TrEMBL record:
The keyword Thylakoid does not apply. It comes from the Bacteria. This is Alpha-ribazole-5'-phosphate phosphatase. GO terms for cellular component: cytoplasm. It comes from Sphingobium indicum BiD32.
């Protein structure tokens, strides 16, 4: 089976950067949107998808306008839901609880928040629905890490070894199938 390029673009800097903004619908800055458009301009993607959260969706809309590729919205590409901590700065969360979460985000999810395995499951389902065409997805750091877990077999700790700053572009070469796999082809901060 032939492979296809999958471009995962983290949204640009949002208002309230530095907070745990999973499901919080923080708006992107104009600079953040512009940086995403610059990253996407020469990719030759045939499919464009964005998370439904404003920080990704608005960047996706700007990319669609700049490239002429129609935008599809898919909520499965949302960030991890930080539950009761969503919208808080790390300093506002009890330190030991936050440390337990970073150490084991599946077993120590935030109160009323999403487990790591749930994020991986929904990203896996979204990947399964992709057509084997050059695809750009404007998304979030957590979902990019979940895609690395699904496609490259990274365990949770390995996914955190990859620095994914705002508006970075992670390029994967994907081989679809019953168990899709991928190779990292580039990371452009």
């Amino acid at each position: 089976m032939s492979s296809f390029p999958l471009y995962l673009l983290r949204h640009g800097e949002p208002e309230g950067a530095g907070r745990l903004i999973g499901r919080t619908d923080a708006r992107p800055t104009a600079t953040g949107i512009g940086a995403c458009v610059d990253q996407a301009r020469d990719l030759a993607a045939e499919v464009l998808i964005a998370s439904d959260l404003s920080r990704a969706r608005l960047a996706g809309e700007a990319i669609a306008l700049a490239t002429g590729v129609p935008l599809a919205i898919d909520a499965r590409w949302r960030e991890l839901d930080f539950g009761a901590w969503d919208g808080m700065s790390p300093g506002e969360v009890e330190g030991a609880a936050l440390a337990r979460f970073w150490d084991d985000p599946d077993g120590q999810a935030p109160p009323s928040g999403e487990r790591w395995s749930a994020l991986v499951d929904r990203v896996s389902a979204a990947i399964d629905d992709l057509a084997a065409r050059p695809t750009l997805i404007v998304t979030h750091a957590g979902t990019m890490r979940a895609a690395l877990a699904v496609l490259c077999g990274f365990d949770m700790r390995q996914t955190w070894a990859v620095d994914l700053p705002y508006n970075c572009l992670l390029t994967l070469r994907v081989w679809p199938g019953v168990t899709p796999s991928a190779q990292i082809a580039g990371l452009y901060p």
